[in-house]
Amino acid sequence: MMAIVKKYGIKLQVNIDKIAIADYLKLTFEANKGHSMAYKPSERNRKLIGIMVVIIYLTIYVFLAAALGEWLVLGKGVGWEISYFAVAGIIWIFPVIKLFRWMDDLIKR
Fold first, then answer.
1. Taking the complete model, does pTM exceed 0.70, yes or no?
2. How many CA atoms lie within 13 A of 102 on its CB side?
3. Of 26, 36, 62, 93, whose Cβ has the fewest other Cβ atoms within 10 Å?
């Protein structure tokens, strides 16, 4: 069976053997250790997605934390305000740490 493959603007005629396709699929499946062959973004794409999510997350988090702080503790004393904003300034990092681990996952494999 012949197929025309276009890669980098060059058309190539390729012989495709049914056995070769079956072997490729089998090897790919075994390489994934039986897991589904779902799309896994490359390292570059993971970092791009991760950075965009961090920017969006932090923007929303800052506005929500400031609004909640204004509603809960503003005017109740400096001690309450410092305590609230110190805790709010630390809590944001925990979800971001998980995201950074996901972004760095391919490097460790």
1. no
2. 16
3. 36
